[in-house]
Amino acid sequence: MKATWQPSTKHGELDTDDRKSLPDSAYAFPKQRKEPMTDASHVRNAMARFDQVENVSDADRDQAWANIKRAAEHYGIDIDESDWHDLGKHAHTKNPAHKRS
Which parts of the chain fold into alpha helices (H)? Predict the structure, then answer.
């Protein structure tokens, strides 16, 4: 799937008016205009909330995953998962409690 995401000039917190002015290409899910990715924090949020997005097809998720990967690369975020089906199977941060005996 080819990514459609393009960097947006708006950064940081987005209020309703800001979101309305963003192009579809700024969203992980462009058709539904869900999960805007205007900075690294928003890309991480899109990954964390990926499985919470409702009323989208697998094709929409394929598109969103391609967009997230492109945005992550742009903002210097490493992604361990190779496919969106892998999201949620591994913790995104190391849990020190797992090292205890």
Answer: 16-21, 40-48, 58-75
Q: How confident is the model at residue 34 (pLDDT cuts 50, 70, 90)?
A: very high
pTM listed for this prediction: 0.79
In a domain, 96, yes or no: no
Domain range for 72:
27-89
Whether residue 21 lies inside any domain: the answer is no
User: 18 lies in a domain?
Assistant: no
Is the pLDDT at 85 greater than 50, yes or no? yes
